[in-house]
Amino acid sequence: MIRALRDPDRTNLDRVQIVKGWLDGRGELHEQIYDVACSDDRPIDDRNRREHPVGNTVDVEKASYTNDIGESILMAYREDPDFDPKQRAFY
What we know:
Elements: E1 2-5, E2 15-23, E3 29-38, E4 58-59, E5 64-65, E6 73-76, E7 89-90
Antiparallel strand pairs: 1-6, 2-3, 2-7, 4-5
């Protein structure tokens, strides 16, 4: 179970990700990024990544932003689709 909340006085959340690291049979380190929750009802594709980028509300010239997009809270349930109990991994 994953639950992420924005800071009460800060910008909204775009997405929640899990980074998995593991050692292969030769002892080499690998990493994989999984999107597990995305704001604005954006779907997650078959590669476990969001399909569409979030928009941008930053005004560089004025050094400001709005909270018109994103979410104040994101929640998800996640199971590792590649879980192998014999493999050493970290999340």
